[in-house]
Design brief:
The structure holds two protein chains of two kinds.
Chain A lengths: L1 H44 L1 H12 E6 L6 E2 L5 E13 L7 H11 L4 H13 L6 E4 L4 H9 L7 E10 L7 H4 L1 E4 L2 H6 L10 E5 H5 L1 H5 L3 E7 L5 E8 L6 E4 L3 H11 L4 E7 L4 E8 L5 H4 L4 H9 L8 H4 L9 H11 L8 E3 L2 E3 L6 E3 L7 E3 L1 H6 L3 H11 L1 H10 L21 H8 L5 H8 L9 H12 L4 E2 L4 E6 L2 E2 L7 E2 L8 H15 L6 H4 L8 E7 L4 H7 L2 H6 L7 E8 L6 E7 L5 H14 L26 H4 L5
Parallel strand pairs in A: 2-10
Antiparallel strand pairs in A: 1-8, 2-3, 3-4, 3-5, 6-7, 8-9, 10-18, 11-12, 11-23, 13-16, 14-15, 17-20, 18-19, 21-22, 22-23
Helix pairs in contact in A: 10-25, 14-16, 14-17, 14-21, 16-19
Chain B lengths: L1 H8 L3 H12 L4 H21 L4 H23 L2 H25 L1 E3 L2 E6 L4 E2 L1 H19 L6 H19 L4 H17 L4 H21 L2 H11 L10 H13 L10 H4 L11 H34 L3 H25 L18 H18 L7
Antiparallel strand pairs in B: 1-2, 2-3
The chains are: A alpha+beta, B mainly alpha.
Chain lengths: 647, 378
């Protein structure tokens, strides 16, 4: 009985467990089907997505920075180069605790506040590139110390990189400009992929204007990475294309001489080759050391430079606005001749003052007792104000403005450096617009002698002289001489001709040029004191004195002795513009000496060097491997065109 | 029909000789060969996953040899012995689990190891076998289908070790214990109504469980629900694993060519996530082949279950089979992102010894059940 029940139960149990086993099998097959569907979903439908993600995981495009193009002067003297330095970089992705690693590093390698604040700034705006430079220009000791303690600085590494260096220092600071770390504004205006490996960008000057040429094209390395981001091997490499080398029209020797001649003097020198418009020298003093900016200038140093009363950051050659003063007189005279208001023989008697008809106000000549009877030549030679008051009044402001406009005043010269300001040609409309006041006849008189509202830049002054030297042919002033790419050198820039100044009677050029030459050689001439003796070359030019204090002040006490008693910043500026030699002009020069009378003297030094090679003391420049007196073998192939008559 | 098949085959004298030889040494040839196939596949995958590290392969082969010896030993023991000793084994297991809680050796932040001086082992591994053994022998004495009393007793038998293991804490092993015990209950005919009732209860308990869970477990659940939540930390494993599998496509990137594992994007690529390596290098095709090998073992396990002659053997064989199924299914589900991340290796493929030996011991028991049958037909 017992046994039967047991057997019955046994069969029932077998049926039950068999049923359950089959149910189990069904459940398992359903689950496996789900798993296989899942695999199919991942491996078929999402295959593209995950293939991309997988490649993104292990393939990394590492951009390679192109080498920035070098900058030479016209004779192949190096003006901007790239020097290798060791820099200490931090990779933020690899270390979350940056303050700690900074403090660790500072125990071994001193870090100053500038470096730290610069680093923090970069950390905030840090873009795709991995490393952020913490300290540039490590010494060998520091490099060694770093490697000894490297395990303490996760995420920090030493990298050899090239940084910009300007061997001739301050003398070229304004022309070349400098490079600096890319900032947020610049980031918006550059092609981010081409700059993905680049930390530096031209901030100002040639470096900025020719940024595209100098920068080159970024290269790439396709690297295989592991999960920690360590590149394992390079799979593919696209080499960066280095930036073009630039040859500037500048002559470094002339530039250094000009800087030396100006030294200690706030002012500007611009020298142009009239036939081509090439700028041979362009100096603004005081200057600054552009190398300071490359590695990141400290905010204090920068503030000092910005707030310095002499404004060393200010490029006077392009942005300095000065009254034309008496250097306007050749243009006014040309206007008079061209409009027929006067002939060269037109004379008047100068009692030392001028008075407008029916007006009480008396306009004094700079010479208290007057120049006596003067014709045009005499008026220019002795810079007779009364003559030009009368001429200006006779032909009116529009004739003067028209002539100045034809010479390019009041507008940008288009020089390939940017930054320049157009200056001002004063007109009734201009005065109404900017001052809200009507034009008075007195304004015309002031304009006739270059005081008052008329303003121009030293570059415009030099360009004006070059145009006169060319007898009306106007060449666009420019700084780029030649571009050099790997394997080929472009043809030298020939210069662009601008709308020339055409006179109704071309003989009038001769009148003016003769008068300007007489300024130098006539004993009555304002340039005679400095150029009247021992001149081995011919020169035509004009002096000028730009009033800094008020014209009223000068009217009452306009004696030059009084000037010396004024505080320096109220003293007049002296101007000197010239070209030489007279019959075959090689250079046109404009010199501004602020608050000093030295402009003609400075110009003489430079001209003497140019034409007779006056031995000069080699100038002291910071870290100069190339002495300006040493002639560097010209790299420029087209030597005839490039070099000019030095010695 | 199955009987008929067996019966027919027994008439082939040659085959019968061969069969009786294997039977004599208590090896089930189908199970044995499919396990050999799986271990070979496992070694091929592991060789790539370990970045061709021959040390790892040597170690694994050593583990496997040991596991095969254990399997053969377990196959020699007749089921009746297991049945008799089950209660003692269970008792020793509980004792050791308590011991491990008291004197446990901490490894990887959890007290799982018991160090007896000459050997270090995890008592929870013993329990993986002891629990189904004891439950099967327990139900063997009962009349099936179950009455309420025995169900409660069974639940108690399951929950005590599961709770002890989860205290270590080792939730994934605890879960495997529940599965092992639960599968015995299921085979013993736990009514569908009761099972659905328990399921509802489990869902109702979920918030309570959430409260009881460790923080890292909550993170895992959250990660499972939304893998993109925290791609660099908590979800990193699963995202990289899906990338590995998904980028494999149909044919895979080829053996030794998986970038996800070789460049270390895929974490734990030799252990818990080794299935992703298979998916990446051998693609859909390779993964399905691997799953098929696993399923062959499962089918053989079910065959043994159905052909076992007493309730103890049937319950035990079924439970071992089901536990093996869930151990690889949960691992694959986790690696493919359909289940939350649990620290479970892929049996016989993942690198590591402890769980492999248990697994192979289980196969030994299956073989014992199959080869100790009294052949009525002959």
């Amino acid at each position: 009985m017992q046994k039967r029940i047991a057997i019955k139960n046994h069969l029932q149990e077998i049926r039950l467990t068999t049923q359950r086993s089959v149910a189990m099998l069904v459940i398992m097959l359903i689950l496996i089907a789900l798993l296989i569907i899942r695999l199919g979903y991942l491996q078929f439908i999402k295959n593209d997505l995950y293939t991309t993600l997988s490649k993104k995981n292990w393939l990394d495009l590492i951009p390679t920075e192109p080498t920035r193009g070098l900058i030479y002067d016209r004779n192949g003297v190096l003006l901007a180069e790239n020097i290798p330095v060791f820099s200490l970089d931090i990779i933020p992705e690899k270390n979350k605790n940056i303050p700690q690693v900074l403090s660790e590093i500072s125990k071994v390698i001193p870090l100053n506040d500038t470096e730290l604040s610069q680093f923090q700034k970069e950390l905030k705006q840090h873009r795709r590139f991995d490393e952020i430079p913490l300290k540039l220009r490590l010494t060998e000791t520091e490099v060694a110390r770093f490697y000894e303690n490297q395990y303490r600085f996760p995420g920090a590494l030493i990298k050899a990189r090239l940084i910009r260096h300007y061997p001739l220092g301050p003398a070229f600071s304004h022309v070349l400009g400098y490079v600096g770390r890319i900032n947020l504004d610049e980031l918006e205006n550059i092609d981010p992929s081409n700059y993905s490996a680049t930390n530096y960008i031209g901030k100002i000057g040639i470096e900025k204007f020719y940024e595209d040429e100098l920068h080159g094209t970024v290269g790439y390395e396709q690297a295989e990475n592991d999960a920690s981001g360590q590149p394992l091997r390079i799979l593919k490499q696209i080499k960066p294309i280095p930036g073009k080398n630039l040859y500037l029209t500048l002559d470094s020797r002339l530039q250094l001489i000009a800087e030396q001649a100006l030294s200690g003097q706030n002012g500007a020198v611009v020298i142009i080759q009239p036939a081509t418009g090439q700028i041979l020298a362009m100096v603004s003093e005081p200057a600054f050391d552009p190398n300071l900016f490359v590695t990141g200038i400290s905010s204090k140093d920068f503030q000092d430079l910005q707030l310095a009363p002499d404004k060393p950051l200010y490029n006077r050659t392009l942005r300095g606005l000065y009254p034309l003063a008496s250097t306007i007189k050749p243009y006014v005279a040309l206007a008079g001749l061209d409009t027929g208001s006067i002939t060269p023989n037109f004379t008047l008697f100068d009692p030392g003052w001028y008075q407008l008809p029916n007006k009480e106000h008396i306009y004094h000549d700079w010479k208290t007792h007057g120049h006596g009877t003067v014709n045009l030549n005499h008026a220019i030679v002795s810079s007779c104000d009364t003559y030009f008051f009368s001429l200006g009044h006779k032909m009116g402001i529009r004739s003067i403005d028209d002539m100045l406009n034809r010479f390019g005043f009041g507008e940008l010269t288009g020089i390939d450096i940017g930054e320049e300001v157009p200056g001002i040609i004063a007109s009734p409309e201009w005065k109404k617009r900017s001052k809200g006041v009507s034009w008075y006849e007195g304004d015309t008189l002031n304009a006739s002698i270059g005081q008052g509202f008329m303003q121009g830049t030293p570059l415009q002054f030099a360009q004006g002289m070059a145009t006169i030297a060319n007898r009306g042919k106007r060449m666009a002033p420019h700084l780029l001489f030649q571009e050099q790419e790997i394997g080929k050198t472009a043809e030298p820039e020939t210069g662009t001709e601008l709308e020339p100044v055409r006179l109704n009677n071309v003989n009038n050029w001769k009148e003016i040029i003769t008068a300007l030459q007489d300024v130098m050689i006539s004993p009555l001439g304002t340039g005679y004191a400095h150029y009247g003796h021992d001149m081995p070359y011919t020169i035509a030019g004009k002096t000028g004195t730009a009033q800094v204090f008020s014209i009223k002040h000068r009217d009452e006490e306009g004696k030059s002795e009084e000037q010396d008693k004024l505080p320096e910043k109220l003293r007049d500026h002296s101007l000197f513009v010239a070209f030489a030699p007279v019959d075959k002009p090689q250079i046109a020069i404009a010199v501004i000496a602020e608050h000093s009378k030295l402009a003609p003297v400075i110009a003489r030094k430079i001209l003497d060097y140019y034409f007779i090679g006056t031995p000069v003391v080699p100038p002291q420049t910071s870290a100069t491997p190339v002495s300006p007196a040493t002639s560097v073998a010209p790299v420029v192939p087209n030597k005839e065109k490039a070099s000019h008559a030095i010695r | 029909m199955q009987y008929a098949n067996t019966f027919q085959r027994t008439h082939n004298p040659h085959q019968q000789d061969a069969r009786s030889f294997w039977r004599y040494i208590h090896i089930d040839l189908y199970l044995f060969l499919s396990i050999i196939l799986l271990t070979i596949a496992g070694l091929i995958i592991l060789y790539s996953a370990s970045s061709q590290n021959s040390n790892v392969i040597e170690q694994q082969i050593l583990h496997m040899s040991l596991a095969f010896v254990v399997m053969l030993l377990f196959a020699q023991i007749p089921p009746i012995i297991y049945q008799r000793w089950a209660v003692w084994l269970y008792g020793i297991g509980i004792f050791l689990l308590i011991a491990v809680l008291l004197f446990g050796h901490t490894g990887k932040g959890a007290e799982r190891w018991l160090n007896l001086g000459f050997i270090r082992f995890q008592p929870s591994e013993i329990m993986k076998l002891a629990l189904p053994l004891f439950l099967a022998s327990f139900f063997h004495k009962m009349h099936l289908p179950l009455n309420n009393q025995s169900i409660f007793a069974a639940l108690f038998i399951i929950f005590v070790p599961a709770l002890l293991v989860s205290k270590q804490p080792d939730q994934s092993t605890a879960a495997m214990l529940m599965i092992a015990g639960g599968s015995v209950l299921f085979l013993a005919g736990l009514s569908w109504r009761l099972m659905s009732g328990l399921a509802v209860l489990a869902i109702l308990c979920a918030p309570f469980c959430w409260y009881l869970m460790h923080d890292y477990q909550r993170q895992r659940v959250l990660t499972f629900l939304n893998p993109e939540r925290d791609p660099l930390n908590k979800s990193y494993h699963i995202i990289q694993s899906k990338i590995a599998i998904g980028s494999g496509g149909f044919f895979g990137k080829g053996w030794l060519n998986g970038t996800q594992s070789h460049l270390h994007f895929l974490p734990e690529h030799s252990t818990d996530f080794i299935f992703a390596v298979c998916g990446e290098e051998f693609g859909f095709l390779g993964s399905v082949i691997l799953i098929t090998i696993f399923m062959i073992i499962i089918l053989r396990g079910l065959y043994i279950t159905i052909h076992a002659q007493d309730t103890f053997s049937r319950l035990l064989a079924g439970s071992l089979t089901l536990t093996f199924f869930f151990s690889f299914f949960i691992n694959m589900g986790m690696v493919t992102g359909i289940l939350p991340v649990m620290g479970l290796p892929l049996p016989l493929v993942s690198y590591g010894g402890s769980s492999m030996i248990t697994m192979m011991a289980g196969f030994g028991i299956l073989m014992s059940i199959q080869t100790h049958r009294k052949l009525l037909t002959t």
